[in-house]
Write a structure and sequence with these properties.
The complex is a heterodimer of chains A (211) and B (129). Chain A has 211 residues and is an alpha/beta fold. Helices cover 33% and strands 27% of the residues of chain A. In chain A, strands 1, 2, 3, 4, 5, 6, 7 and 8 form an 8-stranded mixed beta sheet that branches. A 5-stranded antiparallel beta sheet of chain B has the order 3-2-6-5-4, with helices on both faces. In chain B, helix 1 (7-24) runs antiparallel to helix 3. Classes of the chains: A alpha/beta (211), B alpha+beta (129).
């Protein structure tokens, strides 16, 4: 649920990185956070991680980004990850509350395709739990770990992953590597733009002629 | 569903929250929705309000899940005591959480009474958007 504050002139949207365990959701956020820290003059907010001793996400990772202005409004992006492991179902569901955009981070390893499918079905169920229709939010895919292709590790072809997860939705997808940063920023820029646009269209902006 | 906070309501809510701080002696008040989106913050601060909103909403949601698990409707009191600062979480409407920071010498009971007195007003202001 996006928040539009007409006094402070801010638009706030929530974007969640979803996917199976160890698919690279936290690595995506860490890459973006490091990039912002190095490239921005102003101080970047701290990356909050509620994780276990083994560095596995227990609840979520989070940090806010200020994206600049649109029509005089400051855009604020709230980036979250969910815990991927199956046993953290209750906390994973909580993170989805009020979501405006989802990046589904799928693992390209050939051995993880069942886990991708299971996690995607779980995403749909959890959105239903919060009464969020899929066409009400923006959802894109990221086929992660493509860098392993060059290391002779068996990966599933992008086309096969598209067929498994994206054949019905036919939404935008990116082949990526969260470790090297390939297409990580492209993914976040795309989902941010699409989500904000969706929020603006859905709110009363048009009627109020603010656009 | 998105929330639009108009200028007039925002001004009124901030006035109510400032009055609450002046009368109760609380240090800082923050309103967030249950999804962790910061709505309002009033008072002295030297920390990131956005992050406090996110962690508070998560904390509240997790506590609620614990309540459900042990067959409780909800816990009526969510409060942490610190050496220099206490924090109290109060659900003031189905989708709005109020977070109050206050010094340990202040009475929690009195604070809760004051919250109750402004709860309706804030809910109405936010509901009239």
């Amino acid at each position: 649920m996006a928040i539009v504050n007409l006094k402070e002139k801010t638009i706030q949207v929530k974007i969640v990185y979803y996917g199976p365990g160890r698919s690279g959701k936290t690595t995506n956020l860490e890459y973006i956070h490091n990039w912002l820290q190095q490239s921005e003059k102003e101080q970047t907010s701290k990356l909050i991680s509620i994780d276990t001793k083994g560095d596995r996400t227990l609840f979520f990772d989070f940090f806010p980004i200020n994206l600049g202005k649109i029509a005089g409004f400051d855009l604020k992006l709230q980036l979250y990850t969910t815990p991927g492991q199956v046993k953290y179902e209750s906390t994973r569901r909580l993170v989805l509350k009020g979501v405006d955009g989802v990046v589904f981070v799928a693992d390209s390893l050939a051995s993880r395709q069942d886990a991708n499918k299971e996690s995607f079905d779980n995403l749909i169920q959890n959105l239903e739990h919060h009464n969020i229709p899929l066409d009400d939010i923006k959802l894109i895919f990221q086929w992660n770990k493509r860098d392993l292709d060059s290391k002779m590790i068996p990966l599933t072809e992008v086309q096969d992953m598209e067929e498994l997860l994206n054949s019905e939705l036919q939404t935008q997808s990116f082949s990526s590597s969260a470790v090297t940063g390939m297409n990580v920023l492209k993914t976040v820029r795309f989902i941010a733009k699409e989500t904000v646009q969706n929020v603006i269209e859905k709110t009363a902006f048009k009627a109020m002629n603010i656009q | 569903m998105n929330t639009i906070i108009d200028e007039e309501s925002a001004q009124k809510v901030e006035t109510v929250l400032q009055k609450f701080i002046d009368e109760s002696g609380a240090t800082y008040v923050l309103l967030t929705d249950m999804g962790g989106n910061l709505l309002f913050k009033v008072g002295e601060e030297n920390f990131d309000g956005d992050t406090l909103a996110v962690l508070s909403a998560a904390n509240y949601a997790a506590t609620k899940e614990i309540a459900t698990l042990i067959n409780e409707d909800n816990f009526s009191l969510l409060f942490h005591r610190g050496n220099n600062e206490n924090i109290h979480f109060a659900k003031i409407s189905p989708d709005v959480l109020m977070i109050i920071l206050f010094k340990p010498y202040l009475s929690l009971g009195l604070l809760r009474l004051k919250i109750e007195s402004i709860q309706k007003e804030i809910t109405e202001l936010l509901g009239n958007e």
